Amino acid sequence: MSENNPTFVLSPGPHLHTEESTSKIMWWVNGSLAPAVLWGVFVFGFNAALVVLASIAGAVLTEFASQKALGRRPTLTDGSAVCTGLLLALTVNPNLPAWQAFLGAMFAIGLGKMIFGGLGFNLFNPALLGRAFLMATFPLNMTSGWAMPRPWFGAPLDAVTTATPLAVLKEQGIEAAVQLVTSPAGLWNALALGFRPGSIGEVSLVLVALGGGILLARRIITLAIPLSVLAGVALSTLHTGVPLLHLMSGGLWIGAFYMATDYVTSPSTTRAQIAFGLLIGLLTGIIRVYGGYPEGICYAILIANAMAPALDLWFRPRRAAIAGSPS
Amino acid sequence: MTHSSSSLHTFGRGGIHPGPHKEATASREIEDLPAPSEVVLPLLQHLGEPAEPCVKKGEMVRRGQKIAEGGKTGVPLHAPISGKVKPVDKRPHPTMAIAPSMAIGANAEAGPELEFPEDPEWRNLPLEEALSRVREAGIVGLGGAAFPTWRKLEFARAAKVDLLVMNGAECEPYLTSDYRVMLAWPTEIVEGSVLIAKIAGAKKVQIGVESDKPDAIEATTKAAAALTQREIPVEVVPCEARYPQGAEKQLVFAVSGRTVPARQLPSAVGVLVQNVATAHAVYEALRFRKPLLDRILTVTGPGIVQPRNVRAPLGASLADIVEFCGGIKPETNRMVAGGPMMGRALPRLDVPLIKGMNGLVMLTGRGPLEDGFGPCIRCGRCLDACPLGLEPDQVSVRVEVGRTLDCEPHGALDCYECGCCSYVCPSSRPLVQFMQVAKSALRRAAATRSAS
């Protein structure tokens, strides 16, 4: 640039841009999950930590390998592969062998995301596809041999294998579910705070809600999807007499706040998001009450994912003004 | 004067808050550029036909003297400084790279500025005379579009508009020239608005000003209250500070509640929109027959040493104007003519100031697209930001795979390129440009269809 006659960069407008970026959003999502992850690792112990690390490694390495193989620019720093690995880990049994978590994450990124063209192009939530893959491939490791969380103080318990409250509810009814944690009050506490068997990230409603609150405060998500998912579950489980138990248990909140709100695989307009959330909630309730699984949110979201593009076209933004007759 | 946001007028949906960035110049009065040694006047400064020179090279002209005729659709040019006419030649042009331009070298022998005595009948001019003075004064829209004002007024009259909306919103970040004009000449603006309303046949004037300029609201409100002739009521309407409040369609809705149909002009709902600085120029043209000789612009941005509101003769070199503002900082790498949202990047400083240039924003750091852009992650932010309710996301992904002709249902033809979508996109996607690609492809296809 010469002092007297400088030349300037000719960039197209607008010449201002928001501070927000895709990678910032992704890292905020990852960061907001930290409390739930740390709690899961604390209560379930060493293997849970291994599962989390293996899942993140599987996701990141698969994305990197795929981009290298295809000669594309690596995008690891955008945080989305880490996000998928993290989310997958949160939805699996803390006693899952780490290599299986690694394999699940490979599937999630490889066949859930990269094969569609990478970030932005996948139809289904990659983390949930990974979970569905693990459910189909290692069903025993995924659904049995649950660890009992360690108590606040004192030594960790020996790995007591037991069933999740939802599984107990499904197989043996509400009384048995209450028995699991000795009293009705204990059951609610266990569900809210996380002293119960369950997936690594789902056990503490309070911490998942805290993370969701961070995303809401940062305006990364809105309440449209989470609230309508919860409303759908409430509606479809009302007749069982224990809608609250359904609302508070399983991976519902992780699903409602983190999985169903995934930008790429959810609709974009508020009205479409409400329809999408209700669909997920209703399907979750139906699967839980009438289906073969105690938990339903994973498949409910995957089914609704397939509807997202159509929902966006059915519920278009309202135009501020429409074109009149040509004058 | 403060306004709670609930009482403020505003548009219906979308919009962004890119931050005012107006602090550097808002409190600075308009300062005159020292007389330049040369001015360059492109014969084409607006839409329409180029001006036709009516003085010869070597001739001495005085400031204010007509030097080119406007032809059937344009406006004349006047000498912004006294001096000697140089031959018409191809010279650097801000937006057309190189264009035929006149030039005048300052010369004391040419004499002082022409005198512009008041016409005592200025308030009661016959319509034809008033319109002709607007035209002869070389006035174009000073908000940036630079469309010949006499044509817009003629068109508005034919379309039987009943409302004149004065645009004092100045919603573009950084710019403060309209604001300073409103503070400096509130009475002239109000009087000028009434004159414009009379020419256009409007029965009422509403001046829309964003609420972050309370003293401009106060000044214009006082001026409106002090009007001696009150056959046309003038109302100042405080509007929410929200981009793009000053876009025609948004402003018309905000102040009058009327919705301009997509792809149509405000005259479709009986409204004429004019910029406040244009009203000042019309006032001077009708009262004094004074032509448009100077341009008031904001020279600002992180890349300028001394941000200022400058009044400069038309045709002054941007280099001189930037020099007057202390020059640029070493890290300055981009220059935008107009506001940073809808303005246009210019490559070099050795180009002249033209009539439509309301700001010069010197920017540093990397521009939005310099690091490329990412895929659409379907976050929906552009849908929330679009003031028209269009779907930039859907248009962009279709354009990327070559399906430009499928973009019509998603609003590509309605877009007026305010830039809100690009601003909010976390993947830095050039959504405005995707819209442009789709729009021009659709228009080409329509033209081909109607031709066959």
UniProtKB/TrEMBL annotation, chain B:
Any Pfam family the entry gives: Complex1_51K
Subcellular location: Cell membrane
Residues annotated for [4Fe-4S] cluster 2 binding in this entry: C386, C415, C418, C421
Binding note for cofactor: Binds 2 [4Fe-4S] clusters per subunit.
Domain 4Fe-4S ferredoxin-type intervals: 366-395
UniProt-annotated stretches for the region Disordered: 1-26, 70-91
Membrane protein topology class: Peripheral membrane protein
Enzyme Commission number: 7.-.-.-
Domain of life: Bacteria
Known role: Part of a membrane-bound complex that couples electron transfer with translocation of ions across the membrane.
Subunit record text: The complex is composed of six subunits: RnfA, RnfB, RnfC, RnfD, RnfE and RnfG.
Name this protein carries in UniProt: Ion-translocating oxidoreductase complex subunit C
Gene: rsxC
